Hints:
Elements: H1 3-19, H2 25-45, H3 68-85, H4 98-107, H5 120-136, H6 144-154, E1 164-166, H7 173-188, H8 196-204, E2 205-209, H9 212-226, E3 233-235, E4 251-254, H10 267-270, H11 289-300, E5 307-313, H12 314-318, H13 323-332, E6 333-340, E7 354-361, E8 375-379, E9 394-396, E10 402-406, H14 410-423, E11 431-435, H15 436-441, E12 463-465, E13 470-474, E14 490-494, E15 509-511, H16 517-520, E16 527-530, E17 538-540, E18 549-550, E19 554-559, H17 566-573, H18 576-584, H19 596-600, E20 603-605, H20 609-643
Parallel strand pairs: 1-2, 1-4, 2-3, 4-5, 6-8, 14-18
Antiparallel strand pairs: 5-7, 6-7, 8-11, 9-10, 12-20, 13-19, 14-15, 16-17, 16-19
Amino acid sequence: MNHSLQKRIDTIFDHLYASSSIKNPETIAYEFSKLLHTGIYIEDKDNIKPAFKEFMPIGSNSLFRQDKSNVKNVRIKFKEMNEEWGLYSSDPSILFSDQDISYICSVLFDLPLQNKTIDILGDALEIFRNYSIKSLGGQFFTDSIITKLAIDMIDFSALKGENFIDLCSGTGGFLLAAINKIKKDLEINSIHNDGTLANIVINQVIGKEIDATICNAANRNIQTRLGMKYDYVMQADSLKIDGSYVSKYDCIATNPPFGTKTTIKDENILQSYELAFRPGTKQVVSTPPDILFLEKNIQLLKSETGRLAIVLPYQILSGPKAYNIRKWLLEKCKIIAVIDLPSETFQPHTGTKTSLLLLSKRTKPDLNFSDQNYSIFFSKPKWIGHDRRGHIVYKKNPDGSQSSEVLCDIDKVYQDWLSYKEKGSVDSDISYIQNAKTLITDESLRINALFYSNSATKTNDNCVELKALVKKIFYPGRFKRYYVNSETNSVPFLGGSNITEHIVSTKKYLSKDDPHLQQLIVHEGWILITRSGTTGIVSIVPKEWDGFAISEHVIRIIPDPQKEDPNFIFAFLQSDNAKEQISKHVFGSVIDEISPDSVGKILVPVIPEEKKIEISKVIDKYKKLRNDSIINYHNAQLLVQQVI
Length: 644
């Protein structure tokens, strides 16, 4: 994406939103494309470059004055362009007012529109598409950086006769990426026939979208790009398409709608999907659309040679509740690559964490996991180029100042992928290779990239699982809590954010008569780990907290001094090694979570006894000082109360 252009488009959009009678992002994008095509025509036919150089430039704080004579010329040139190129045959004029045209051209006055190094029109439409998505709620938008990565990694080649489909087209992001790939391949092969691109797209690229408004937006985007009116995206419920589509497609890339709250409940639809059946039964259950779309896309894929790139919630690839989905997936498909996308990828529209999964369909299911000897490319990029509010983030210079380079390492993922394809290996801090056999040795069959990262798997060879060194690892069940106002006949209730505090500030108390109280009670020496939200915070219950109630969002570890020194376990769980082990077990698409089972699998190193005793003595000092500070604080408060 041309970020200099994005700043200009932002300026133009803000002006139009404030001053123009045209405020709909779709319409703005369409009318703006008329101006850009007119500018391209001026540069091509009149050899005037940049096309709008005669317009008065607009400074950031300048007042604006219309340039009427040049606007009149732009309108004349639009008609000439339209008559010769026929791009807007049913539109006799540009709908922007003279003032709007003058302003827009003034912002673009020094920008050559026939720049061979960048796609000005394509980038501009992508930026306006982003505005359109924001006005529609954001649920259909996939960053163009990700759509390009997906198309490049599945290596879609229309010139080799391959076809492509996106069953959840939204406003056309993956389709536009596929079109750009075709355009690039045509240029590489020196094919410059103006109608070739559109004809290939019409015959080999298909989009489907259930929402009529979104479908219209997608077609407008693609029509503007290709200059040919055609319904590139068909309105349809893709979950209902018939068997004529099965095993038909070479390449598929898509971002299906997410959500456990918006499940599919139509039994007639569910009967067509294996993943809609309760495991081991013939009973269908309401199922999230992303799961059904995963299966539908695999149904449509050609066996062995077909490639699917699909954005999925992180939960599906890592969460315990999605085990049966992963088992089904490994039986039906070969995993080609897994990219854990940065958490900001879909923000500010949604905080859902996602992964990009690439796979191929097996000819026959591998029901006993006997055919899992192949390599998988994993990557976990850190930066997407914007923050959680959607603002562009730039790299820092060595002196701490902001550079002009966007902070994004998605291109690095693709370079690592090319290295892997060429050499079978990769030397990278974000990408790595694992054999599929590793996946099936994990009893949870996790597929997420983080779980297989090298940094998260380095441990001492001489280790013991934590669950073998303690009495119990658990957290209480969830139930409604009834708080009381008085501290009399009650116990303090602490949340996960309180467990590392020395001086607890809580106004929540539970009655000692609460029938569920005992499930929440903790005792001195128990080790605590936060399990949701901010996961992996470790603490230990001081003497002064014995008998306090603590939230079910905190995992309890009951030590067993006969098996291992509790102080050593507590100290180790605070280490970077333990934190890395905890982090690789995190699952959840919106809220991070860890489970007692995964905590139990933390590998604790076996160390010399004298070192263990030394560590234990230090922790004893820490516990005494912490408890003393709590007592001294409360004593000070009592003294204050006596004198005021």
